[in-house]
Every structure is written in C-alpha cells, then in structure tokens.
Specification:
240 residues; alpha/beta; 5-stranded parallel β-sheet
Length: 240
C-alpha cells in the first residue's frame, strides 16, 4: 500500500499565517538543527516529496530546485531549507507542488470573517483564539522540539477544532462558512494533487511538507480514502 507522511511545519519565511517564524533573517543560525530534522525525515526514505506550492506553478518550483542544486540555498523558507535539502540528499530529480490557491467557492476572505467574529461574537472569538498555536520561538525551544509540538496529537486536535469552529460564526447567514467552505475545498484539492503522485504501478512513500494547519484535515482525508497508510511523523522526529 502507498504510504503518506505529513510533516506539519511553521513558515520559516514569515507569512500571514497561523504559525510563523518572525526571525526569517536568522534561520541560517539553525542550520545544524535543520540538518538534524532532515536526517530524521530521510529515514522514512520518501520516493516523492511534496510541498505547499501551487500545482499550477510547478515550473517555478522546478526552476528554484534546479537553482538550489547548482548554487545552494536561496531562501529561508521551509521548501528550500527542508524539502530541497532532503530531495538533494536522496537524489530526487523533482519536488512536487500540490497546493491550490484559486478563488473557488470563497464568499468571504479570512480577514473579513475574523473581524466579523471579534466584533459580533466576542465570547466565541475568545474560545477560538485559545486554540491557536503560540508563535514559534527557537530561542526558547529547539527546532526539533518545535516540530514535535506542531505534529503532536494535541496540536492537531486543537487545529482541527480551531477551523471547525469557524462554522459557528454568523450562524444566521452562515458567514463563517463563506470562508470555511473554501478552506475545505483547498485541502481536498491538496489531497487530490498529492494522491495523484501515487498513480503508478509502484508503491510510493510520499512525504508532504506543509503548514501545520493542514496536517489534521489532510491526514483524515488520506485515512478515510483507505488507499494510503498514514505514517506518523513523530515516530521519525522523536530522539532516541
């Protein structure tokens, strides 16, 4: 059976997302720890590596990987620091783009829903905000420990609850669902794109490196499909 392992990550190059690292210019200081994580992931020996990059932009990812192979690291982001580094170590010719960021079914942007929630349902806002991951602080805990936390059962459970509860925003007009439906659509399309990497006669071991917010919902999709064995990333990240 095909295997899938999902590594939930923070964004090493800070973005407007739930789990960011603000010290982008300092990521080079953690190279030894990055190598430790990459070496741990290499033990899974993935046959395919997939990342949070729009599938429609595979060409730009190919060009970036070629540049990485020729000249080394070009960016502090997790694609460069983790995926490209691991792909080179394992001799992969390609890193696969599987994200989807089209307009789709969206009716309200996340920012709009967030403002609506905090202005009209402050009690619910406190409940949802309490489920958020704390900011990444590599001065407080190691990179490996950060990944252990992001991929823990507790973190995954809280993240699933965080997004699910947006369905409770604006229940009279389903205001929260105006964005949440798009979130599910995006993740379903990521599932479709990633699963397609296994459409061959060979059994694949796919490693998906993606923002931690996606980990729980995508693992559910792969488990529910009964077409993949979901491998726990913690079993590779934990130190002996």
């Amino acid at each position: 059976m095909n295997q899938i392992m999902i590594l939930g990550t923070f964004h090493m190059k800070a973005k407007n997302d739930r789990v960011n690292f603000q010290g982008t210019d300092k990521i080079g200081e953690y190279e030894a720890e990055i190598i430790e994580v990459v070496d741990a992931l290499a033990k899974f020996n993935p046959t395919r590596i997939a990342v949070e990059h729009s599938k429609s932009q595979q060409g730009t990812l190919d060009a970036a990987y070629s540049k990485y192979l020729a000249y080394g690291s070009q960016s502090p982001d997790e694609i460069d620091q983790l995926a490209f580094r691991l792909a080179k170590k394992l001799g992969h010719k390609k890193v696969n783009a599987v994200d989807w960021m089209e307009m789709g079914a969206v009716e309200h942007g996340f920012g709009e829903v967030y403002e609506y929630l905090h202005s009209k349902q402050p009690k619910l806002a406190k409940e949802i905000d309490a489920l958020e991951e704390p900011a990444v602080d590599l001065e407080r805990e190691s990179l490996c420990d950060t990944f252990l936390q992001l991929n823990s059962k507790e973190s995954v459970k809280n993240t699933l609850a965080y997004y699910m509860n947006y369905a409770r925003v604006g229940t009279e007009d389903y205001y929260g669902n105006g964005w949440l439906i798009w979130w599910y659509q995006r993740n379903l399309n990521i599932f479709t794109n990633t699963a397609a990497l296994a459409d061959s006669e060979n059994e694949e071991r796919i490693l998906l490196i993606i923002g931690a917010a996606h980990k729980g919902i995508l693992e559910q999709f792969f488990q529910n499909s009964m077409a993949f064995e979901v491998v726990d990333s913690l079993s590779y990240l934990k130190r002996n």
